[in-house]
Write a sequence for this structure.
């Protein structure tokens, strides 16, 4: 178990002055902690997406890997995060001594193994991976309906707009997240499915 309170406390001193730098620092601390505890946690890794709302107006979204944040305003879905795919970061991976495989019938992979270019952990591949998050700020206004934070098990079988349309009439956020998870399963998603929905207004 990673000390979330400890990580947050290290992020806190400059969060209000410079939230982007604070979030980047928190991601770095998280990755370092996971690597240090690899004996207990295992050699694997994880993608991540986070969202912090400041004063009910400014949303700070960060991610590594292919966990995704999607915001819906006036019925229109907009992706806030970036899917860190090996093919789009080939130059960076090769610059660190790695390679990107692209076998027929398979997705591009770092060193023929990992299907994302950025992740926490993954100690055996860390020299060729980044844990630097993509960070973006989004204004929350009267048109904002909800945000979806979910792992790739959802996004492999649903588009951003599909997901937004599926829950637009569900008022309860927990019920909306459950519905998306069940829909992903019904569409035969074979990957991990984690989902959080935050409703506004």
């Amino acid at each position: 178990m990673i000390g979330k309170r400890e990580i947050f406390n290290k992020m806190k001193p400059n969060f209000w002055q410079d939230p982007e730098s604070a979030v980047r620092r928190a991601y770095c601390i998280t990755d370092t902690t996971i690597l240090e505890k690899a004996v207990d946690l295992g050699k694997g890794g994880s993608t991540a997406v986070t969202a912090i709302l400041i004063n009910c107006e400014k949303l700070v979204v960060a991610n590594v890997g292919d966990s995704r944040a999607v915001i819906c305003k006036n019925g229109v879905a907009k992706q806030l995060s970036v899917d860190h795919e090996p093919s789009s970061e080939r130059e960076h991976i090769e610059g660190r001594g790695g390679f990107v495989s692209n076998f027929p019938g398979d997705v591009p992979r770092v060193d023929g193994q990992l299907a994302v270019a950025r992740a926490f952990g993954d100690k055996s591949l860390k020299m060729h991976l980044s844990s630097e998050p993509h960070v973006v700020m989004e204004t929350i206004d009267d048109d904002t309906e909800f945000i979806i934070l979910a792992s790739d098990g959802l996004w492999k079988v649903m588009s951003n707009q599909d997901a937004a349309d599926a829950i637009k009439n569900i008022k309860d956020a927990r019920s909306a997240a459950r519905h998306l998870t069940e829909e992903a399963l019904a569409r035969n998603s074979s990957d991990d499915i984690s989902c959080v929905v935050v409703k506004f207004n």
In short: The two ends are 34 Å apart (CA to CA). The chain has seven helices and eleven strands. The mean pLDDT is 89. The helical segments are 4-11, 19-36, 38-41, 90-95, 152-155, 160-167, 173-186.
